[in-house]
Amino acid sequence: KFKFKDIIKEIDSFPNTLTTSMQRDIANNRKSEVDSIMGGVLNEAKKEKLILKTNNKVYKLLKKMKTQKKILGIVGIRSGSKELKDKNIKLLGNKHLVGWILSAANKSKYINRLIVSTDSKKYKKIAEKYKAEVPFLRSKKLSKSNSDEIDFIKDLLENLKKKENYVPDIVVRMLATVPFQKTRDIDNLIR
Questions:
Q1: Does this model's pTM top 0.85?
Q2: 90 vs 156: CA distance, rounded Å
Q3: pLDDT by residue (tens digit) across 20-68?
Q4: Which residues of 66-79 are buried (b: 16+ CB within 10 A; e: fewer)?
Q5: Residue 182 to residue 186: CA distance in whole angstroms
């Protein structure tokens, strides 16, 4: 029998990007958007003849999530590495170099949005393979070998605020060149 705890489990399995999208819809009182995003879960509940209160329970759960801090993970990977071409996407074992840190960040208990800043469409596809968002490509001006790192972070945050009205409470900057970073280290830092 399909139970409410199964719905909660299903929500917990959603990627960070989808959960964040639902939080934005709730913040803007777009309950119908949340319903459509959760279509599969709600349809399953309907098949099992769960009463409409289930939908309200899910909505209340998501509304509660809205009160959680917005914790944004950022990984910057520019193309054009001079000493080792495409170092950020080289394979290390069975994953791209950037894939290691993205996998660790995706397992975090706290990070509820993970974004990669890159200037490359090729890098964007690889980042998305590891369930990271790449909402836009970084400008060439901010992608030079001598560009200050803080500038691309500021640019990313300004664009998120302007385009999505998204302002994180905490920003966690992670490096693709630290592939063996553990999820527990990331979570301990945030705590």
A1: no
A2: 25
A3: 666 555 555 555 555 565 565 656 556 655 544 555 666 666 655 555 7
A4: eeeebbbbbbbbbb
A5: 7
Would you state the structure tokens that stand for residue 110, as one six-digit string?
């706290």
Angle, CA of 105, 17 and 191, to the nearest 5°: 40
Collect contacts of 27-31 with beta carbons under 8 A, ≥24 apart.
27/66, 31/59
CA dihedral 172, 141, 131, 189 (to 10 degrees): -10
The answer to whether the CB of 95 falls within 8 A of the CB of 103 is yes
Alpha helices, DSSP H, located in 52-139:
53-66, 97-106, 121-129
Consecutive H or E run containing 40: helix 39-47
Residue 176's Cα: distance from chain center in Å?
16
